[in-house]
Write a structure and sequence with these properties.
Structural class: alpha/beta
Strand content: 15-25%
CATH class of one domain: Alpha Beta
Keywords: Hydrolase, Metal-binding
Number of strands: 19
Pfam families: Amidohydro_1
Bound molecules: N-(aminocarbonyl)-beta-alanine, zinc ion
Protein name: Dihydropyrimidinase
Shape: globular
CATH architecture of one domain: Alpha-Beta Barrel
Number of helices: 14
Largest sheet: 9 strands, mixed
CATH topology of one domain: TIM Barrel
Family: Belongs to the metallo-dependent hydrolases superfamily. Hydantoinase/dihydropyrimidinase family.
Radius of gyration: 21 Å
Cofactor: Zn(2+)
Length: about 475
């Protein structure tokens, strides 16, 4: 099967070029300047020629932070691996890295097997796993080594959620030391959960039960304190560190300080922190629950700082932390007690578009868009070369993006299995037109040709982004 994508502007993180792309079966085999003799020679033997005139041709998006079917707060995230990866494809994402969870008292292996079983045969796009370590002990530390060897090369730890996913500083230090030795990357949920739980209980005692208090008790200081502590522990352990879902500018300042010292400290933010704020959390009639996630949304003034962090590379990746719960039957579990609202937002379908809007609005360049959404997440999590770049030898995961199309985001039209959109009514300039996953066309205009089970599990290398 030979496919040629003609006449588009190919955008990689490193450069832009008016080039045609030759795909054979599941791989990109060559790029050549549009109109050149070489490029012109490709159409004769091609099975499919796609005209991308006036369009961008990008490597497929890599969303390095999703939670399909995640059990949380007495319920389960609404997108399955099938519905969630289908929605991702509609939004121009062709690889997800989801989080397998070690249950307390169980092994990492049991957790990973359980997540592999959930995903197997269900995914529309390629997928990989990080491992959430919720029980750091001698056995799980040993298992970390084995998992790195198998392609699960990153481990999320929680400074939040005491009694559930929480690790104390000693456990964190031990896991970091292990990662320092075995090449794994520690991903940190950096919020001081012990202090947050005290403030949450005090708020409930005062009768402060509405969703907005979720944001009030999860103080910015408790994110920056935990971020600072995680960085110092990583320095002691001699391991690299990746801060997930960073939302507070004070936490970003901690990351910047560390990076200015040349440390291997990285951070991601998410579209919700770039576009939504505590004003959304304060919406009346329990609407605010739609915006409950952790770390929480922050006041509007943090957004400019986060965009700046994306420009300076103090924030290196934008992931979604896609963890959707329906308003009607899941978010409502927290009526009368904000601590019982399942934490998480839908977003896997919207990331490429919301970041393109950042290009349109002048926050980032086109190449930086591709860098934070495709190339760096691939490098950070050991997928680069195959994913995150259009070059010979890469998987033919390709997005043809119309930069001039107009669309309105809405739950009426999105493909995520959740009954609301955080961005209801938001206008976006730019839209995914065609999506290929390893050479197969999944999306073609309004047509969907994806098939569950076609997405493959991708074992990962260790981090390719260390200095
Ligand atoms: O609110 C969130 N972020 N839910 C998903 C779990 C996590 O901490 O990433
Ligand atoms: Zn988290
Ligand atoms: Zn998450
Ligand atoms: Zn539902």
């Amino acid at each position: 099967m030979r496919t040629v994508i003609q006449n588009g502007l190919v955008i990689n993180s490193s450069d832009e070029l008016h080039a045609d792309v030759l795909i054979e079966d599941d791989k990109v085999v060559a790029l050549a300047v549009t109109g050149s003799e070489l490029a012109s020679s490709w159409t004769a033997g091609a099975d499919k020629v796609i005209d991308a005139t006036g369009k961008y041709v990008l490597p497929g998006g890599v969303d390095a932070h999703t939670h399909m079917e995640m059990p949380f707060g007495g319920t389960v995230a609404a997108d399955t691996f099938e519905t969630g990866t289908r929605a991702a494809a509609w939004g121009g994402t062709t690889t997800i890295v989801d989080f397998a969870i070690q249950q307390k008292g169980s092994s990492l292996r049991e957790g990973l097997d359980a997540w592999q079983a959930k995903a197997e045969g269900q995914c529309v796009i390629d997928y990989a796993f990080h491992m959430i370590v919720s029980d750091v002990n001698d056995q799980s530390l040993k298992e970390m080594d084995t998992l790195v060897g198998e392609g699960v090369t990153s481990f999320k730890l929680f400074m939040a959620y005491p009694g559930v996913l929480y690790s104390d500083d000693g456990q964190i230090l031990r896991a970091m030391q292990r990662a320092g030795d075995n090449g794994g990357l520690i991903m940190m949920h950096a919020e001081n959960g012990i202090a947050i739980d005290v403030l949450a209980a005090q708020a409930l005692e005062r009768g402060q039960t509405d969703p907005k208090y979720h944001g009030v008790v999860r103080r910015e200081l408790l994110e920056s304190e935990a971020t600072h502590r995680a960085i110092q522990l990583a320095r002691v352990a001699g391991s690299p560190l990746y801060i997930v879902h960073l939302s507070a500018s004070q936490a970003l300042a901690e990351v910047t300080t560390a990076r200015d010292k040349g440390l291997n400290v990285f951070a991601e933010t998410c579209p919700q922190y770039l576009y939504l704020s505590t004003e959304d959390l304060a919406k009346p009639g329990f609407e605010g629950s739609k915006y409950v996630c952790s770390t929480p949304l922050r006041p509007m003034e943090h957004q400019a700082e986060l965009w700046k962090g994306l420009r300076t590379n103090d924030l290196s990746v934008v992931s979604t932390d896609h963890c959707p719960f329906c308003f009607n039957d899941q978010k409502v579990l927290g009526i009368g007690d904000f601590t019982k609202i399942p934490n998480g937002l839908p977003g896997v379908e919207n990331r490429m578009d919301l970041l393109h809007q950042g290009v349109v609005d002048g926050h980032i360049s086109r190449r930086r868009w591709v860098e934070i959404a495709c190339a760096t997440p691939a490098r950070m999590f050991g997928l680069y070369g195959r994913k995150g770049v259009l070059q010979p030898g890469a998987d033919a995961d390709v997005v043809i993006y119309d930069p001039n199309a107009e669309q309105v985001l809405s739950a009426e039209t999105h493909h995520m299995a959740v009954d609301y959109s955080c961005y209801e009514g938001k206008r976006i300039t730019g839209k995914v037109e065609t999506v290929l996953s390893r050479g197969r066309v999944l999306i073609e205009g309004e047509a969907y040709h994806g098939r569950k089970g076609d997405g493959a599990y991708v074992p990962r290398e260790t981090c390719q982004y260390l200095t």
